[in-house]
Amino acid sequence: MILAVVGGKGGVGKSTVAYNLGAELDAVVVDADLAMADLPTDRGPDLHDVLAGRADAVEAVSEGGPVAVLPCGRSLAGARACEPTALVAAVEAVRDEYGRVVVDCPAGMCGDVGLGLLVAEACVLVTQPVPSALGDALRARALARELDAGLAAIVLNRASEASPTELVARELGGPVGTVPESAAVADAQAAGVPVAVHRPDSPAAAAFAGLAETVERACRSRGRAV
């Protein structure tokens, strides 16, 4: 299974969702934000090296943390040296080796987002209950449709009881899971671990576990292995 995590607007919590969903699904998380990587990294080869032909995708996967990650470099020179279209083959190679891959796509509507969706069998759309984020989510949803990446779930991040969950489900056309505003998420992110590791009893940890169940159901219903 290859699952793309997208969010039209930056700052909606897309990378946080991708990392925690990777933990719940026991998947490798590929940090595919070539210019503004946000997931944990280490000293080994990264996605910049892979896309520049200097490293093998499977060998670049870091298994040293609580979640296996194919990290991305942080340098502008590294980003410029990449061949972005090589992302498809790199993600497929990781899928062939590990079985499950979550691709953390960049924000916006650039070509890199399209590549992540192009290689994915399904996607998770992350947004927040504010008009600017919801507008961009609609555009990301339209792109996913064009590229035939089925919508497995919508995540309404930093949601409250007053958030328009039913409206979001109707407008975006998929099941909505909510992740509450939570200090546990920020603390886990600062510690570089999933919420389920840092605060397993928190509402946010329960939300990510529920999201993983929703994704697995959606993929099964489409006849795709999870």
TrEMBL record:
Q: Where are the transmembrane segments?
A: none
Which domain of life does this protein belong to? Archaea
Which GO terms of type biological process are on file?
Answer: negative regulation of cell division
Q: Which Gene3D superfamilies match?
A: P-loop containing nucleotide triphosphate hydrolases
User: Among the entry's GO cellular component annotations, what is one?
Assistant: cytoplasmic side of plasma membrane
Q: Where is the CobQ/CobB/MinD/ParA nucleotide binding domain?
A: 3-195
Which Gene Ontology terms cover its molecular function?
Answer: ATP binding; ATP hydrolysis activity
**Can you say what this protein is called?**
Chromosome partitioning protein ParA
> What organism does the record attribute this protein to?
Halosimplex litoreum
